[in-house]
Amino acid sequence: MKKPAAQDEVTSFVPDLDWNPLEEPGSNARYGEHYTEPVTPMKTASPLNADGSGGMAAIAPRSGAFKVTLVTVQLSGKTVADTNAINMTAARNSITSANAYWKSASAGRLSMTTVKEFRHVSKAKITDSYGTIMDTVTKELNWQYRPYESLVVFVPHADLNYNGSWGILGGGFTDSDTSGRVIMPYPSALTNNVVTHEFGHVLGLHHANSLACPNGRLDAPRTGSTWGTTGCWSSEYSDMSDLMGYAQTSSPVINAFLWEYGGFGSGSEVRNIGTPTTKQQFTLRPWGGTAPQRALKFTDPVNKEVYYLELRVPVGYDGTAAVGGNQGVKITKQDILGWSGNASVVLTPNSSYYGYSYRALTWGAGQTFVTTSGTRVEITSINPSTGQPSAASAIVTITPPNTTPPAATAAIAAVVSSAPELGGVKSAVTCGLVNAGCYQNFANGAVIWSSGTGAAMSLNGPIRTAWLAAGAQNGVLGYPKAAQDCGNRDGGCYQSFQKGEIFWSTASGARISKTGPIRTAYRAAGAENGILGYPIGAETCGLKNDGCFQAFQRGEILWSSTTGARISKAGAIRTAYRAAGAENSALGYPITAEICGLKLGGCYQAYQKGEILWSSATGAQISRSGEIRAAYRAAGAENGVLGYPTGKETCGLKNGGCYQSYQNGEIVWSSATGARIVSAGPIRTAYRSAGAENGRLGYPLTHQTCGLKDGGCMQSFQGGEIYFSSTSGAQISRGGSIRTLYRSLDAQNGRLGYPITAEICGLRDGGCYQGFQRGEIYWSAKTGAKMVKTGSIRTAYRAAKAEKGILGYPLTHEICGLKDGGCYQSFQNGEIMWSAKTGARITATGPIRTAYRKAGAENGTLGYPTTNQTCPTTTRCTQSFQRGTLTWTPTGVKRT
């Protein structure tokens, strides 16, 4: 399926006959005749009279064979290939389709036949308004209006424009209702319908529109060229069940008003019952069929307007259009639009919904339409004759106004007898309201009756004013069920109606609470006596996901189809919710009411995607759905180690991470580590001092784990761990060789105990070390990580200036189990040997150590060293052992 060409496109476009412009996303495709302001005016047309009646009589029946000249036009800037792309078969078929339709509608008196075909090269441009193109081509061809002649022009573009507005599917112009012109873009799936529609204009018809009244009124009186009901207007093209409405792939039968106006048929199709004076029943037959007197019209005895009734079922040209909500009794009358009263308006059961493609235009069995002056049209029954729609029928009952049911008179009189506050009588009992209702006016209000509600007072005042503004009995509330009830909270009043209530107080004014889940929730919460107080606004819908809300003195009720109606009461939680964007925020709609009585007197409210928690110490804070909230709830939420949140979830950290602060810690999240708790305390302090997630530790890998040796705690991070004990404090064990060795030695449970310093680097040769409760770990690139545990060897090593001294870095850990229970540890430049008798002594790398090791070290005749090596001069060094002394001179090593 191809999209229409852009308005400035001049390259070749190959049209697709399956392309339906109405299926394009955001399509504004439409008929574009602008028939109320035609470029070539209707020569015999005259405007409406001041009273709104037609300025000329309906068109007399015509007989004639239209001779059609079919022209394809190469516009300036377009190529021969563009014009060649016009599908001539489709163009011819559209004339054939129009001929079949109008021949059927005129009982065979009218026909359309193509008598000439040719191509024309024009100076007009596709960017010209379609009327300008039509006029230019007409003048270039020297084509003249003549009785029963028509000019049909196809231009090489996907659509037409009117003053720069694109998406127009065709245009039509008429002269004396027997001659006219049609302009079309490339053929598409809609072309047969559009050309037939444009020939409707050639024959003098305007559009089939719908009455749009957002206030719920189903009929409106004509007052000159406007509707007499405030807020009502004509939605042009919006009768989808009519050829002269919106573009579609089928071509439904024109309505009975246009049928009579245009002088179509044989004259026997519409039964005129005149002005009804009594209640009468009539039978309708399928309007798309052939039965005589299958539709009817009547003149309202009061407003004098003529109404047309027809049964729409899938018969004939209504075969695919009269389905669903467009199958039933259709009611039309003359529109305020058009020239000479040649436009129709359909009166639907729901005038507050309108649009080009509205598919609920007809009335069903059991429904009652009431004219502006009270004439009732009841759809008594519809027999669809399943399987044989041509045999379908409908019975309609027409009741003129002031046919008063005795029950209404008696019920109204009973109310009046006990209601002196109504004042003097201002009218008789008058009937003809929707659903056969009646009323009587008084100086201070009215009494309204229906068979479903009985009689109820409607006293003048803010409640009655609000009811009338909402459409009275025709509106969202329907009929009143009881009189006003006053003396309520804060001196307020309310009145019940069929579909809701109106509440009033001096502070809130009169507000509607219509039947539905929001009202149910409001009443369950105690209505005006509950936490919400009086409503301060109407129910408003059209929110995210088709939700609704209503505001009250102390809160709101929000509703969606997935969450139901939930109260958002005034307070810190609601303030935080609204500040976050309410239902449009990440939280979505509430799924619970606000719940209090939590720890420390706190409250919370749950939403589709999170919660808001409040305490007096922390205020209201959002806990939105996700891993952080899951970790918080798993830790016991406000009852757990973290307490209440103290801030909202904040993202945009390193590597896209997030965190949220709580009374007793934080939860930190990254995609690599998940959500982890960093509890308040020394470990968290050390972590934050080290730069938190931006430091070498990165994000936490685990929660804090306590109950370790000596009551200690630890927490793992991407780049290491933090250990804590009461004697060592919180110390970082960062990732690397030192930490690896520490963990291999069983960490805090091993011989080293807890770390007492951080890892410290920048030592000799780029080395590092870390102090522990019972020793140290040293590291250099050459030696790796080695432990020097607390004891005599470590004391001797440190006395020798550790890695800075003659020994350098350790090469091994301390090794015990030597002779006499001795121990030793190797270093880069020697060893330290220990025995209980000799203590810890250094054997530095050199000739003496070499000789000592040749002699079997501690296992030899010398035993353990008893002193460190001393060198009083540069040519003499000595070291004593348990059983001898080794002396070095330039001549060698001697034992004494």
From TrEMBL:
<dbReference type="GO" id="GO:0008237">
    <property type="term" value="F:metallopeptidase activity"/>
</dbReference>
<dbReference type="Pfam" id="PF08310">
    <property type="entry name" value="LGFP"/>
</dbReference>
<feature type="region of interest" description="Disordered">
    <location>
        <begin position="1"/>
        <end position="24"/>
    </location>
</feature>
<protein>
    <recommendedName>
        <fullName>Peptidase M43 pregnancy-associated plasma-A domain-containing protein</fullName>
    </recommendedName>
</protein>
<dbReference type="InterPro" id="IPR013207">
    <property type="entry name" value="LGFP"/>
</dbReference>
<dbReference type="InterPro" id="IPR024079">
    <property type="entry name" value="MetalloPept_cat_dom_sf"/>
</dbReference>
